[in-house]
Task: structure prediction
Amino acid sequence: MKFPSLIAVTSALAFAAMATATHAADSIGAEQPIAGYDWSGTYIGVQGGAAWAKAADSVDDVRLNGGALGGYAGANWQSGNLVFGIEADATHSWNDGTIFGVGVGTDWQASLRGRLGYAMDRALIYGAGGIAISRVTVDASPAFVVKDTFTGWTLGGGVEYALSQNWTTRVDYRYSDYGKSGFGLGIGEVKLTEHALRFGVGYKF
Result:
């Protein structure tokens, strides 16, 4: 996917998410004012955006850029202005590239993160970090196709905003280091890292 197209898709996802959440807020609970918003509770959401990954060995590297679409679920506990939380997410990705005629790409990512935020009424600024995994495919058809799961860590943060008592929207950035794998081929290890920007719409119970 070309970079301008990637930006266009990401922007379209962001505007679509904002429009959907705003319409839901108007139709479900916008008549209820948010005074001293309480972030405590469980929630679910959908997210989409773009990712810029790199797979590197001791000699060369390949850029794996593309889109992502998935969901998340978690829980928050608020004490004063501080918000503590835990969140799990899973995302299908279209990060593809080629090196020496061999296709390389990520199929999906998932993470389990702790969150710490500072609430200013309906706005929440947060940091998050935890465990991250990613499934990677190396396709040299018809010779061979191999897949492996990378496991590492992720760290990032974002801004979330409550549109109503139940509906929220957010922008989330994260950097992930998925560690190394040799795919069982005996030809050295590959290190996988990624920057990702995602826009989300959530529903708090």
User: Anything to note?
Assistant: The chain has one helix and eight strands. The two ends are 37 Å apart (CA to CA).
